[in-house]
Amino acid sequence: MKISFLDLKAGYLELQPEIDAAIKRVLDSGWYILGEEVDAFEQEYANYCEAKQCVGVANGLDALHLALLALGVGAGDEVIVPSNTYIATWLAVSQCGATPIPVEPDARTYNIDPARIEEAITSRTKVILPVHLYGQPADMDPILLIARKYGLKVLEDGAQSHGARYKGRRIGAHGDVVAWSFYPGKNLGAYGDGGAITTDDAEIAERIRVLRNYGSRVKYVNDVRGYNSRLDPIQAAALRVKLKVLDTWNARRAEIASRYQTGLANVGLTLPFVPEWAEPAWHLYVVQHPQRDALQKKLGEAGVGTLIHYPIPPHLQQAYAAAGFIQGHYPIAEQIANQCLSLPIGPHVQAEAVRVVISKLQQFV
Ligand SMILES: *Cc1c(COP(=O)(O)O)cnc(C)c1O
């Protein structure tokens, strides 16, 4: 039995008639930039996220970048980011001419540790940027308290957390703004690139609407130096179909996670920890093991596909060499990078496959 880490095509096949019809509707409409389909998706996604506003953009990195610009981040500013995240979180800060200031995660939740944020704040700090990593909500209440105390804004990176809840409320508007990615492999994934921001703040939403469209409110009148970063209507139409099944598909992920939690409880792996206030979206199911590379190799030989999220933390990437970070600077992020392993999870991973993964792990660990 060959178990792939992710089967995107199975997701398309399940919804094929609806997806094909949605895409054809856009083709037939003769309207191919922004317009009704994007407006409708924005409305539906805002409602889903329990947020007042949604603005569709071209991808998740742009969502983060435009959100930071809308919050007034620019050259010389500092933004607090997790040391353990996908590099996009940092790159968005750098794209503004600002400096990402890493803060270590809580070793159990993998998310930014609120207890370490205050020591990273300086007079240049503008924004705290937590990531709801692996689909687990970050601990927002203490983060929001710190932000209020120091007059900072909060941008959430929601790229892995579509549908997750923090203390009963969906991720979508706990902080000032949330950036979303609809990269195909995300819980809500398009058939190409896509992204969005959600917020309760109409002014922030309006700024991003202008920034995504050449800095223009009225065609050929340019108020600011904007960008071309619009959500494609074909992707919006497909996302409207997929939004309808997001809760069902997330429930399948949660079922797999629960099987792993039980089946792997005494195997000797570090399993995900879920605080009582968290309802994760289970974008990834990440375990840790000291001999991760050997374990991954054995699983691969047994036909079980796994991935590493992520093998090199941002501070040790060549891209950030100029910042002068060294090995050992962020030991928790480094340990996670060295020991983490993502097991197959997704709406199209079958129960039998989960049983096989569990039994192989019982055998190999
Ligand atoms: C996927 C991802 C992004 C970037 O999204 P793109 O749509 O690929 O630009 C940003 N942050 C995190 C945490 C991600 O997982």
Overview of this structure, please?
Helices cover 38% and strands 15% of the residues. The chain is α/β, with parallel strands linked by helices. The strands form 4 sheets. A 7-stranded mixed sheet has the order 1-9-8-5-4-2-3, sandwiched between helices. It has a 3-stranded antiparallel sheet with strand order 7-6-12, with no helix packed on it. The protein has a two-stranded antiparallel ribbon with strand order 10-11. A hairpin with a 2-residue loop joins strand 6 (165-166) and strand 7. Helix 1 packs antiparallel against helix 7 and helix 2 packs parallel to helix 7. The longest helix has 31 residues, at 233-263. The model has no long low-confidence stretch (mean pLDDT 98). Pyridoxal-5'-phosphate (PLP) is lined by residues 59-61, 85-86, 88-89, 131, 157, 159-160, 181, 183, 193, 195.
The helix content is 25-40%
What kind of sheet is the major sheet?
Answer: 7 strands, mixed
Number of strands: 14
**Which percent range describes the beta-strand content?**
5-15%
Shape: globular
Q: What is the helix tally?
A: 10
* Bound ligands, each once: pyridoxal-5'-phosphate
Furnish the topology, listing elements before pairings.
Layout: H1 8-29, H2 36-48, E1 53-57, H3 60-70, E2 78-82, H4 88-95, E3 99-103, E4 125-128, H5 140-150, E5 153-157, E6 165-166, E7 169-170, E8 177-181, E9 195-199, H6 202-212, E10 216-218, E11 221-222, H7 233-263, E12 278-279, E13 285-288, H8 292-301, H9 331-339, E14 340-343, H10 351-364
Helix pairs in contact: 1-7, 2-7, 3-4, 3-6, 7-10
The protein binds pyridoxal-5'-phosphate (PLP).
